[in-house]
Amino acid sequence: MKFADKYKANYFLPPEDRYDWVKRDRITAPPVWCSVDLRDGNQALVTPMELDEKVEFFKYLVKIGFKQIEVGFPAASETEYAFMRKLIDGGLIPDDVTVQVLTQCREHIISKTLKALDGVKHAIVHFYNSTSKPQREQVFKLSQEKIVDIAVDAAKMIVSAGGGFAYEYSPESFTGTEPEFAVEICNAVADVIKPTPSNKLIINLPVTVETSLPHVYACQVEYVKKHLKRADSIIISTHPHNDRGTGVADAELALLAGAERVEGTLFGNGERTGNVDIITLALNMYSHGVDPLLDLSDLNETIAVYQKLTGMKVPPRSPYAGSLVFTAFSGSHQDAIAKGTKYRAEHSDAKWDMPYLPIDPSDIGRNYDGDVIRINSQSGKGGIAYVLEQKYGFVIPKAMREDIGYKVKNVSDRKHKELKPDEVAEIFKKEYIDVNSPLSLTSFSFDKSEEEVLLSLRINNNGKDTIIIGNGNGQFNAAVSALKRAHGVDFTTVLYSEHALETGSKSNAAAYVGLKHGDSTVYAVGVDPDIMTASIKALVGAVNKLLKA
């Protein structure tokens, strides 16, 4: 693109040669989660939530396990202020939940914010001012010293007001701030707050705008953490946005670099391209065996609440939550998942290691029947067989799978649409079970001697009953003999398989028969409570296919 030379890298790499975070390969414990759905997420909506909707959303965040929730910017509007008061006056804040409010470092805004907290049991006062070089030079036109003064004066005012609150400071636009200056201003704020190991100050290092690769942010976080004077009395928090599409990576690397707390939103809703997606971040940890301490076991409910209250939609390819993320249309993927499912049934104590499925969909309320393997023209024989077995009990023999695979895929291709399980079953029934013309089985009887079976078949041939007789070393072979002799068609039996479709005294059985004549191989299926009746039905159906061919 010819205008690319107008851009430059707008970030600061700290002056360090070595970083500890690069030696760590996984997150071993969940962070403290702080939902900012009701503030950052809400202010990003085209139509912000109304008071009752915010209350409902707050209750749901509590339900799924959030212990810290940023409820808004009380000085921003009457609705924001009224919401804070409703939570407090209505006794809606559980004793183990801390609400967080946001305020700029401005006297009248701080005053109204603190007033909104009157009577609250547990609260975090989160104050911020912008510290980046572009903001200082272009927006505020202030020196570093003046920017520090703004933060320090705000800290003094907040502390002098008392109230027993916890405190959080954010050098907003941190990623565009010189690391040494970020350390300076955070230390200056801490000198006012005077945190202790039992009453810690939260230093939040926001990715207000993503400007670098995630590893640069990790280096910035580690640098600040190492150079804070009161490190044992400070919690490092991260608040990534998603301008470059790497918000989750920013948060994960920040945790490796020493952050202990994450501010984010459900499904990444937030300004511009959004905040870090806590759902993705939490389930990434879950997939590595770390309990995120959030209840995401019914993700469909979480999606429904989120979409109802925000008016936003969860994209179908959104990690974990999207309607298609566990779905395999590809034949090779379906086959691998089907075989992996069988393997897990035989090795139920094994750690999760399923092909193409990083976590078990059932852990978050998704099901295999409707979510995992779905059928269209790209599907494979293994996936189609999987659907027929899981939904309807038909264990399709391997030799027959390619034949049915093509028939199902051809229907999907012709209709140019995905096929639901009942549509797949209907194709299977039509092509393999209900093959009753020109011949259909009416009844049969047999006599058995020590050496052979003599079988009499009553066959309806195009509306006319006929009796045909055959002999063999078993009933099925005798039926083969009878049909060959009566209808003058020669064939070889290349497949015979049977199994019970369901348990119990009234269970049906399924039988599968494959016949070869010349270069043609045909298959049919019989279903009946009696296994031999099912087998002969399948045989007659396969002969019908040969006669038609």
Question: Can you give a write-up of this model?
Answer:
- By secondary structure, the chain is an alpha/beta fold.
- The protein has 18 helices and 14 strands.
- The protein has helices at 37-43, 51-63, 78-89, 107-116, 133-140, 144-160, 179-193, 214-227, 247-256, 278-286, 299-310, 331-346, 368-372, 381-392, 398-415, 421-433, 475-487, 531-548, and strands at residues 32-35, 68-72, 98-104, 123-130, 166-172, 201-207, 234-240, 261-264, 439-448, 453-461, 464-472, 492-500, 509-517, 520-528.
- The strands form three sheets. It has an eight-stranded parallel barrel, surrounded by eight helices.
- Strand 3 (98-104), helix 4 and strand 4 form a beta-alpha-beta unit.
- Helix 15 packs across helix 16 (421-433).
- The longest helix is centred in the last third of the chain and has 18 residues, at 398-415.
- It is elongated.
- The mean pLDDT is 92.
Write the layout of secondary structure elements.
Elements: E1 32-35, H1 37-43, H2 51-63, E2 68-72, H3 78-89, E3 98-104, H4 107-116, E4 123-130, H5 133-140, H6 144-160, E5 166-172, H7 179-193, E6 201-207, H8 214-227, E7 234-240, H9 247-256, E8 261-264, H10 278-286, H11 299-310, H12 331-346, H13 368-372, H14 381-392, H15 398-415, H16 421-433, E9 439-448, E10 453-461, E11 464-472, H17 475-487, E12 492-500, E13 509-517, E14 520-528, H18 531-548
Parallel strand pairs: 1-2, 1-8, 2-3, 3-4, 4-5, 5-6, 6-7, 7-8
Antiparallel strand pairs: 9-10, 10-11, 12-13, 13-14
